[in-house]
Design a protein that fits this description.
By secondary structure, the protein is α+β, with helices and mostly antiparallel strands. Helices cover 22% and strands 43% of the residues. The protein is elongated.
């Protein structure tokens, strides 16, 4: 009986050792397996640098025009939507004080013109003439000041976009619900501006007078062009952004203040490495990317840092060098150190 148990134990041990040997042979064979792949030679190419931005258009110039004191509106010469030139008369306030000031000015002027030739002939003293001259100059300044506060003219060419009061109403100098007090609002629309913000990583790339392409969903397929007109020299510490002003010519008046637009600053060309998007594999459960290059028939895993994307391609800012053999097909079967057989190589 003991002999039978001993024989059974020997047979079981032999079978276990045989199984282990077969499993080891299988693992060895699997480890020596060569994976067929296709590779492409990594090269540098020109990359157009752009900075993508969004924002809302505003008038290039805007003015809320009102009087300097509380007074009655006598006449408004413009309506909403009317185009005006610089210097055009927009509205006039009650001119009662203006009329009185004009009379005083005219009297002072008459005295000055009457006394001047008398002074030149030596009929009056220097002090008497200086007194008359000073009175005339003061009366002239007072009249001109009253005139500018009674008749209001356009400070620049533009379009009247709002008329907030009517003739006969009293203009109050105190601010109202809409902000600063105003009788009419004037905007310059033949040029518009876009105030937008860019990341601090783009600070070195943005320059004055750079070309900017602007598009609006209201005009599909149409591109408007502008230039960078102002760059704020400081950054917002909370958002890590800086302000950019873009000037956009608008001769056809298609664009209007308040429109949402997308802008693209053309920051010039540089060289960099660009690969097919499918060659960069995303690591599961993370935002990191990786790929495989071939060195001496072995796959080497490299961590990739992605830059700008171009449809089916992507820029690689680190992880690859020009001349590397990058696996473009078959990388899903690879791990670091896998033996590979290059079936196709694109130079």
């Amino acid at each position: 009986m003991n002999n039978i148990k001993l024989l059974s134990a020997i047979l079981a041990g032999a079978l276990f050792l045989a199984g282990c040997a077969k499993k080891q042979d299988a693992n060895t064979a699997k480890g020596d397996e060569t994976v067929p792949v296709e590779v492409v030679k990594v090269r540098t190419e020109k990359i157009e640098r752009t900075i993508e931005l969004v924002g809302t258009l505003a008038a290039w110039k805007e003015a809320n025009l009102g009087a300097q004191t509380t007074a009655r509106i006598e006449k408004i010469f413009v309506e909403e939507g009317k185009s005006v030139k610089e210097g055009d008369l927009l509205f006039q306030m009650d001119d009662t004080q203006l009329s009185q000031t004009k009379i005083a000015y005219q009297l002072a002027k008459n005295d000055y013109e009457r006394m001047k030739p008398m002074f030149e002939m030596g009929s009056i003293s220097q002090s008497d003439f200086d007194r008359v001259k000073a009175g005339y100059e003061n009366a002239e300044k007072t009249y001109n000041l009253m005139l500018t506060n009674t008749q209001f003219r356009a400070p620049f060419a533009g379009i009247i976009t709002a008329k907030r009061l009517n003739e006969g109403e009293i203009f109050m100098l105190s601010p109202g619900a809409s902000g600063a007090p105003a009788i009419v609002q004037l905007m310059q629309l033949n040029n518009l501006k876009l105030i937008t913000y860019a990341s601090e990583s783009n600070f070195r790339d943005v320059k004055l007078n750079q070309t900017v392409e602007v598009i609006s969903d209201l005009y599909p397929g149409e591109t408007f062009r502008g230039v960078v007109s102002k760059i704020n020299p400081t950054l917002n510490a909370a958002t890590r952004t800086f302000e950019i002003e873009i000037k956009i010519p608008n001769p056809a008046m298609k664009l209007r203040p308040g429109m949402f637009v997308r802008a693209k600053i053309l920051a010039g060309e540089t060289t960099g490495i660009v690969i097919s998007r499918v060659s960069a594999l995303k690591q599961l459960g993370a935002t990191a990317y990786y790929g495989f290059i071939v060195e001496e028939n072995l796959a080497k895993r490299v961590t990739l840092t992605l830059g700008k994307e171009f449809d089916s391609k992507v820029e690689i800012t680190s992880g690859l060098s020009a001349g590397d053999d990058l696996v473009s097909k078959g990388q899903g079967l690879l791990k670091d150190g896998t033996k590979v057989e290059v079936k196709s190589k694109q130079e």
